[in-house]
Amino acid sequence: MKFLFDENISYRIVKKLKSSLPDIVHVSQTPLKYASADRSIWEYAKAKNYTIVTLDEDFKDLANRLSFPPKVILLKRKNCSTDLISILLEDKREEIAIFHKSETEGLMEIF
Questions:
Q1: What does the pLDDT look like over 7-60, one tens digit per residue?
Q2: Quick one: CA dihedral 50, 33, 57, 39, positive or negative?
Q3: The whole model's pTM is what?
Q4: Strand partners, 24
Q5: Where are the domains of the chain?
Q6: Integer Cα distance of 87 and 81 in angstroms
Q7: Are the beta carbons of 34 and 28 closer than 8 angstroms?
Q8: Which of 12, 33, 52, 89 sits 20 to 30 Å CA-CA off 18?
Q9: 7: phi > 0 → left, psi -120 to 50 → alpha, else beta; which?
Q10: Which of 43, 38, 68, 71 is nearest to 56 (CA)?
Q11: Taking the chain, what is the end-to-end CA distance rounded to the nearest angstrom?
């Protein structure tokens, strides 16, 4: 599984999760510019086979309009810390793996 974390999540998440999810990158570590349009992030993730992890509801709209790939994991907890995000993702690891393998689901919401 490859994950691209949107810029609304701290770049520090990569360091926190790198041991358990080795193929992760933050949007700031890509050729995309800061404050890139959501559609640019979408296209980059699609081209590089990443699942987007975000707090931004706009990606839900893109997923509903454009389908997948890329897949989107939308974190529904606002103003949460990097520590909480890493715990949420670790706790949902099995569900995320099932979602990743799904041929019919392109959007996963984590509450």
A1: 999 999 999 999 888 899 999 999 998 778 999 999 999 999 999 999 999 999
A2: negative
A3: 0.94
A4: 3
A5: 3-110
A6: 10
A7: yes
A8: 33
A9: alpha
A10: 38
A11: 21
